[in-house]
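Obj.: predict assembly geometry.
Materials: sequence records (below).
Method: joint structure prediction, all chains together.
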Amino acid sequence: MVNFTIQDVLIAAGDDYATVDVQVVDSKIAAIAPNLQVIGTAIDGKNKLLLPGFFNAHTHSSEMWQRGIMSMFPLELWLAELYDFAPLDPEEIYLSALGTAVETLLSGGTSVVDHLVLIPGLELETIAIATRAYREVGIRAFIAPLIQDESLTAGMPSGESAQTHEPYFRSTAATLEIIEEAVKQFHRPDEGINILVAPTGIQLCTDALFQGCTELSDRYNLCRHSHLLETKAQEKLAQEKYGCTAVEHLKRIGFLSNKTSLAHCVWLNDADIAILAETQSTVVHNPLSNLRLGSGIAPILKYRQAGVNVTFGCDGASSNDSQDLLEAIKIGSILHNVTDSDYQHWITPRQAVEMASLGGANGLNIADKLGSLTVGKQADLVLYDLTNLSLLPRTDPIGLLVLGRPSNVVNSAWVNGKQIVTDGKVTTINVDELKQELFNRSQWKTKRKSETVAQIEAHYRTFMGL
Amino acid sequence: MVNFTIQDVLIAAGDDYATVDVQVVDSKIAAIAPNLQVIGTAIDGKNKLLLPGFFNAHTHSSEMWQRGIMSMFPLELWLAELYDFAPLDPEEIYLSALGTAVETLLSGGTSVVDHLVLIPGLELETIAIATRAYREVGIRAFIAPLIQDESLTAGMPSGESAQTHEPYFRSTAATLEIIEEAVKQFHRPDEGINILVAPTGIQLCTDALFQGCTELSDRYNLCRHSHLLETKAQEKLAQEKYGCTAVEHLKRIGFLSNKTSLAHCVWLNDADIAILAETQSTVVHNPLSNLRLGSGIAPILKYRQAGVNVTFGCDGASSNDSQDLLEAIKIGSILHNVTDSDYQHWITPRQAVEMASLGGANGLNIADKLGSLTVGKQADLVLYDLTNLSLLPRTDPIGLLVLGRPSNVVNSAWVNGKQIVTDGKVTTINVDELKQELFNRSQWKTKRKSETVAQIEAHYRTFMGL
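Observations (raw structure tokens):
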């Protein structure tokens, strides 16, 4: 364990900034004050800003393989195309997890929630290799193996038509066994690797799967993660399936809690919002993905007014198509100004930073250990270089960082007190080799033809009234 | 004049890509085909994508001085704060024009339309020094001196209250004389410096100013530029002022034409859209600014369906708060997917590239000379490095560039055949010195108190019903 002291660094203090020293001892923040004694390595913080690491609170790492090429489709058709071309080689899962970690770190994130798509038949191998990638990089990882127990077509409303669906290829019980085994093998919170229970969402999961996940969550003290009401089609489906909203149903079956984080939450009504507040559930806002897929604008200002915890995610790189967390924070803040003419409700840059850090920690039920520059908390820290052209001239550093378009501004990052970014480079893995591998295993191409889209598009257009 | 040949470079060809050589002779594209003879300098285009330079079709360069620090306000209050702290030293105008040019170039733009805020009493000096900055960098500049002849408070609807306004400090005639003098001194299209007539908008300009600008435009063959219906308040004001929409009024007084580009265009109705199409006016979409100021979402898909030419701008860096054109293109494309559930209307990455290049040229009435990779056109070109991590793995290069979050991907840029970016660096000015100057002339600070906002905020809240 290497202790260190960052000297003369800017930190947010009240509504202003202070220049302080920050001591990190035994992987924890030991002291924050001006003119501290240097303990361990001295780090020059001059002309730099120190913030708690952000959380990339929802992504799917292996989507990196299809970024840039997915058709301009809404979620339901986009998913069909995605799965027709999903990577099936564990080595690819490894590389895209590395890439996701690197891009997250270089845009201010020190934690990633990977709602990990599992290779059919190689489920534990997929989890194992993603775990290996995150351990190698040293980013704090929350691996949420994406599970379902209904087939893709069940995820769309039937509308007027009678639809039948193929049964899912694996039983609910077998899926839950895989997750329990993953918990036993890989869930090591003290080492920065966490397994979450993560049914993909009401559109493709039975109550039995949700309830099995809740039981595992209670038994092993695991966080819970799921997609929720990303699209209008899912809102319709919930009514068909349950005769109530998806949120009412999830509350009834006991999935909502203070360790539950829910990606998207675009199509909730006021009563649903009250339920999220009451159950202390967290909304993970993925603004780029919601725009790219045309899902809608999540009512984030309403969530904040109702006291619902909100944080940000990049979502998978096929629906974004990047893993730049600062971009998600910027767009996820300013997007909502067009939804409320009273500017007093708008998210300020400082609020956005708190949502991305403490909000992320809250959503994973670890706000006592992470998410702020507080003595006693774990040292997940990011040091930003304020002399980059994209942050000049000097004005309000947090305003520049959140509202600008910073590039190459992450100078250093530490996870649990270990430095894994130095001078703007991830030092734990060879990023040039990673680039070469990604390059070698891919080729430039244009549109592909998804057979599943061809099968389901007419039905989609019918029930959406297109 | 240095001739050159880019070898083995990817270009868009139909719906696909082709690998070709591109010859540039006497500042024009001379040939595009595989295996051409090398004329002049050979440039390695391997693993790179060549596109026509984009247009940053609406910005205000001196806003760079206040980026990151402006309050979260709607336009009318934001403007009051902006002007209370506007830079008044020509040297600052020079530096922010350099900065705007550099950031535009490094995000794919080779042309900038600078709706330039003039220092009162130093109007021609302001234009002169911005001209000098753009000449030094070598970017193609369209300098649109921002003029008005009514005072700030006249830019808001009076609502129920009786409002009186101070007269503007300079007469309409004196303002028009300044512009005519600027045209004589600085308008040199063949050298890449253009002066535009650019009344700020209907909210602060009399008919006499618009008509004087139109006369200058006709006499000297100048493009016309203005803000148009950025906010709901301006829509109300137009009704108060004219008893009709702003677009109907501008048509009536003859300002709309195929050399007129109009920034924002958020609050237009269907009849207004038909007028823009009929007059061949261009819409400049500034999505980041429209979100940041809560102005609204411009109906861009409707414009496209009506045959209105649309291109992109960053808008000033105080309302964005960056000059990253790729960011504006991305958000300006995907934002509209939430406004139309039929994905067949959504903007594809290739369409976005065409809007940013040919659309920009069309808006400045120079599509015969610029805006596409066409033999005989001027060589305003950008070469993108496709081996950057942010563009890997390899899929569809244009999809990655537009939908991803590329950083450091501009390898080279040429304006009128002259190379001004090489290996990712602007070579015509010393960017390190620029950074140092920007740093030295500024300081980190938090919120400021705008006196003008204090005076007008209550009235704003009243007429907006807040």
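Conclusions so far: The mean pLDDT of chain B is 97.
To do: check interface contacts against the pulldown list.
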